[in-house]
Amino acid sequence: MTLRPVTMTAPVALPERTKTRVLDLIKRHGPQTAQDLAARLDVSIPAARRHLGDLLEQGLLEARIEKPGGRGRPQHVFALTERGEAAFPNTSSGLCVDVLRHLRELFGQGAVLQVLDARNQALGEQLSVELEEAATLGERVERLAVQLTALGFEATSHRETSLHEDGASSEVWVLTQTHCPHLPVARQYQELCASELTLYRDLLGVAVTRDSRIACGQGCCRYRIAAAPHP
């Protein structure tokens, strides 16, 4: 009788230390290019690409083509997949989803909206204290970004020139969030994102529009803040 060697299935290896750092950097700073990651990790670009290739094969990252900052030449950027997001513990979001689901089943969609409105009001009162001493819109946006980062949103702000169809231009502020601490909830309850937009409009007192949303699979939540008063 001929004995055949038994093939053992190796367990899936956890990402090595550098790959874990890659995931953490993308989690903290949003989608990154291979060049960005090489600079942050202090490794060569080919080395960064090897790590990215491994993480792509493991389903932890996805690659897409974007223009950096919405401008310039398109580049390949790497972002976390749902599996990659799940590598970071977030048990509170799962609890929130369950609570909101039961609330809707028991009392209807209106009850969910009331809960989110109440949360909005409490959060707005907390943030308004930090913004009330700001003398200009730019200072308010910058302070809001700092407070949102403290809440886990990894927010930044900058000013840019907006061109209109008639050739005129105006200055707008851009608020960018590269992380959503409530992503599982936001994916199932769009009302959460809608309440966030309303909150920013009320806090800043001007028109605010959203260009992109993490919950829709985009790399960041990006808000454009004009100087026009919010109606």
UniProtKB/TrEMBL annotation:
Domain HTH arsR-type: 9-93
SMART domains found in the cross-reference section: HTH_ARSR
InterPro entries: ArsR-like_HTH, Carb_Metab_HTH_regulators, HTH_ArsR_DNA-bd_dom, WH-like_DNA-bd_sf, WH_DNA-bd_sf
Superkingdom, natural source: Bacteria
Transmembrane spans: none
Pfam family, one: HTH_20
Xref: CDD domains: HTH_ARSR
Coiled-coil spans in chain: none
Protein name per Swiss-Prot or TrEMBL: Helix-turn-helix transcriptional regulator
Species the sequence originates in: Deinococcus navajonensis
